[in-house]
Amino acid sequence: MYAGQVVEQAPTAALFARPLHPYTEGLLASVPRLDGPPAREHGRLHGIPGQVPAATAWPEGCRFHPRCPYAWDRCRAEAPPLLDAGAWRARHPHGALLAPHRPEASHATPVTPALVDVQGLVKHFPGERGWLGLGRPRAVVRAVDGVSFAIAPGQTLGLVGESGCGKSTVGRTILRLIEPDAGRVTIDGQDVVALGASALRALRRRMQIVFQDPYGSLNPRMTVRQMLAEPLAIHRLASGAYAERRIAALLEEVGLDPGFAQSYAHELSGGQRQRVGIARALSVEPQFLVLDEPVSALDVSVQAQVLNLLADLQQRRRLTYLFIAHDLAVVKHIADHVAVMYLGKIVERASAPALYARPRHPYTTSLLSAVPVPIPRRSASASC
Questions:
Q1: CA of 34: how far to CAs of 27, 28, 85, 189, in Å?
Q2: For the segment 17-70, what is each residue's pLDDT rounded down to a tens digit?
Q3: Helix or strand or coil: residue 295?
Q4: Which of 65, 132, 202, 384 has a CA that sits 20 to 30 A from residue 245's CA?
């Protein structure tokens, strides 16, 4: 379905094997896959260009034509009918395959020493008593239990595992949004855990976070302009006309028109909100970003756009990422190294190519075997 219309309908296996509508092709091409080369080998994930049109302003003719690589004059003038071919129905079927241009990418050898160094990080949450505070306290939750890793400048570490394994707690504890119980965290040589309030506030310019839920992390009572102006004012980076120019430049850098500055969060799509969240994190010129499942709430085409944006920003600004996710197919396309977490501990850590080619821990193997492949017959046979 696209822009209020069904654009293609077919038996599952047939649609995945040979999609006829350009939008269906684009969606399937946007899905990160374990059975294909990682994006770092060929440059970028495929993404559908442009944005979904507003429901109050559908385009004339084919509603997909502004984003379609096959559009021609007739597409702009005539709305294609939904054609029936037995069990298959599609608007404007053509059968061509997408062949997006994917530039070659080169990657430098990781630089040492590490920008981010985490050693023996621990965070336990005390168990609560029963109703009205009566009864025995519940067992301590060992959310993070001796986690260690390092990230070189300009590199991405993918931190993966099931929900509840402690991934997000690691990210928040590194930034001291949650206070650690033990361990050492250094960012560019500074001991984050030992810093006082004023020094920590100064360091926050260099370390930022992008949250999973782009709607929940944005203030619904503030415009985009106000949300981007706030960190600039707090850190005394810009004010007045210069701040306005910085805000416009930030929006353009994340692929949004500066006119969005007057919008509120509820007026934006999920992808647009996440771009605002990224712009807010970038506003203070950080070196290190914790990306806490930044694409898990987005549909596959928008997901590909945001992943490509993050890759472009990393290359342009030489950013260092901790990319937290549960989707190993997504991590494969963005991470240089991967750490697998289970019950508060890292059970396997390796370079991304090595881990995906030859996982050594049984938990890693089970996670990889559970990732669906967008070819129904192959997925079915893999699960048998």
A1: 16, 14, 33, 36
A2: 777 787 887 787 777 766 665 655 445 666 777 777 777 777 888 887 888 877
A3: coil
A4: 202
Whole-model pTM above 0.85?
Answer: no
Domains, the chain, with CATH or none: 8-91 (no CATH), 154-171+202-383 (3.40.50.300)
Q: What is the CA radius of gyration of the chain?
A: 23
DSSP string, 16-73: HHS--SHHHHHHHHHS--TTS--HHHHS------S-PPPTTSPPSSSTTGGG-TT--H
Per-residue pLDDT tens for 108-144? 344 457 999 999 999 999 877 666 666 666 778 899 9
User: Amino acid letter at 314?
Assistant: Q
User: Does an H or E element contain 4, and which?
Assistant: none
Q: Does residue 87 contact residue 10 with C-beta atoms inside 8 Å?
A: yes
Helix, strand, coil percentages, rounded to 5, for the chain = 35, 20, 45
Strand partners, 290: 209, 322
Write down the residue that tokens 């919008």 correspond to. 263
